[in-house]
Amino acid sequence: MTHELRGIFGARSIAIVGASADPAKRGNQAIRKLIADGYDGDIYPINPKATEVLGITAHASILDVDANIDVVLVCTPASSLPGILGQCGEKGVPGAVVLAAGFSEIGSEGAAIAKLTLEAAVKHNVRVIGPNTNGIFNLHNKMNLVGVQDVEPGNIGICSQSGNMMLSFVTEARRRGGLGFSSYVGVGNQLDVHLAEYLAYFGEDEDTHVPVFYVEGFEKGREFLDTCRQVTQKKPVVIYKSGRTEAGQVAASSHTGSLASSFALTSGLLRQAGATVVSQSDKILSVAEGLSKLSIPNGGRVAVLADGGGHATVTVDALIDAGLELAKLSDDTVAKLRGLLPPAASLQNPVDVAGGTDDNPGCAADCAEAIMADEGVDILMIIGMYGGFATRFNPDLLDAEIETSQRLADLVATSPKPLIVQTVYNALRTKPIEVLKSSGVPVFVWCEPAVQCVAELVNYAKARSRNAESPLVRPDGPVSGGTALLATISEEGRDAFYENEAKDLLGTYGVTVPKHFLAKAEDDLAQVSGELGNGPMAMKIVSQAILHKSDAGGVKLKVSGEAELRENFQAILSDVHDYNPAADIHGVLVAPMAQSGIEIIIGVIHDPMFGPVMMFGLGGIFVEVLKDVSFRALPMSEADAYEMVDEIKSRKILEGARGALPVDKTALVDLMMKVSQLALAHPEIKEIDLNPVILRQDGYDVVDARMILNSKGH
Q1: Mean pLDDT along residues 64-72
Q2: Which residues in 436-450 are b (16+ Cβ under 10 Å) and which e?
Q3: Backbone phi, then psi, for 53, in 5-degree steps?
Q4: Does 579 have pLDDT greater than 70?
Q5: What pTM does this model have?
Q6: Which domains does the chain show, CATH number per domain?
Q7: Cα–Cα distance between 97 and 100 in angstroms, integer?
Q8: pLDDT of residue 257 exceeding 70
Q9: Does residue 6 surpass a pLDDT of 70?
Q10: DSSP sequence for 361-407
Q11: What DSSP line would sit under 638-664, residue for residue?
């Protein structure tokens, strides 16, 4: 619970179990750091063989302390944990930070200790951070139980499954300047407290403006997604997920299942929850800095104010690649800029000052004020060599540059529009640049990280609005027809639907399904014309043993007339028997040939970590070749479904490439939402695979449908 974590991170009294006089021991280093940083709470060294440690009275055990203890830092071996937690419970200590390794990660002996430790924590109502953590800090509380040096207080929180990544962040922040941190937690083995609870804590912590999570694996993925959706309504959350999710490893019994192990699944679900997912580790801190300092824009129209054509070109290229929109400046703004800049200046976005600031740095602030006042501008980027005019041209310009920086800082403080600066002189940390940084203006050396911050800021604003305005859609419950169909399948002891059953179930949830007829014997084909008409037909084997019908010769297309139907019926049975003599034959499904269109796939799997997840992408044979797919957790909103469609790289094919008519996106989203409702109403269905669905400008045809139930006992 977050109030318990608030008590731990805001501790006013700390006991160090394993306190030591040896400077090489963590039980000594922790106390030294608390003293050095001026921690004004109470410190209680616990060591039965010492009377004092670093001049502070020591106690033989936690129980000997005649005062309340908010948190215990445990520096003793793993085997001591159950007993220490028992003492914590007796003393009423709410939390323990456990450094020791030697639990489940070392095998059965460690797993047994972990089991006893967790039982003791639950029994005595003690929340355990770790074990196998490198510690926590709260710099605003001057409580540094990690021991890392020279870390500035700030508003970026860190939750990491790697202590080295935390060291990378704080070292980089120290090098760059203008960056600081609120709290840090190394999650360790997550024996008790999990990632979702840490996220909830950071969401409520007023000192944390942006939590940063370095994640190697989720243990309670759905809980994390739900928490993230709530927290991102208040503040951005930056996540770097290393490796490929193991939670997505499911049996490759369908196209959806075979693709679900990709990183795209985890990334798509996190972004759906409003998180900012960073794919390069060296960009994590840059993105976090931008999001922690920049105000949320009303839109994504970006203006660029540059003092060099090269940087302007690089920035515009990066903006376009990121899908951002260049703002169109109003005539009034252009007129203002014309009065401020020399004749050679470019007055259209990007604005190039053409040397207008070389001997008059204040011109940069004048132009910035004019541009930010433009109603058609949502975000301003200042690009080039700001803050280096005194260094490059004339030292006498330094005071004017500092004054200009203060004007820009004041402009940011009074304007709702974000301002971000990129300058080659950032690495030199000149005084004008330091003024900007100290005022909360993010400054970068390179154009691309600056643009990425802008892009992620715009994405976050969109995601927050989407999740606030577009509710998740949940079914009222299963429909009776679907329940009866599932009961029949279950009674027969089957795990897989026959195709006709899968299509019938789709129909009960409002999905438009083409008419079809199941022929169990050749003579049944005499009824086809009366049931389906006389047009060309598609014929497909119906068998649980045949997953890929075409490979088995189990598909015949453009079949017309009863004679051809009979001939192809026999051919299908013969080919399938040759392919798999033991295959069960339920019959041959006959349906009118679908109209031509774009083939897509819609699938649902029950991910062991995240629960029900929908996949969308191009279908047919291309789904496994291109792997151009998107994922969302269920339940989802209609806005989520539209974003799934727009997210795939080949979306232009759906929009009508080379003069083709665009597909009916409204019908597509309606289909996706109905499949979502079916999957949520029947969690006993493990996988749904609609591949292909043929999209047209006036609707769709579900050509093939497969559904698999959870195996018995699961």
Answers
A1: 97
A2: bbebbbbbbebbbbb
A3: -135, 120
A4: yes
A5: 0.91
A6: 2-208 (3.40.50.720), 321-441 (no CATH), 480-592 (3.30.1490.20), 598-709 (3.30.470.20)
A7: 9
A8: no
A9: yes
A10: THHHHHHHHHHHT-TT-SEEEEEE-TT-HHHHT-GGGHHHHHHHHHH
A11: HHHHHHHHHHSTTHHHHTTGGGPPPP-
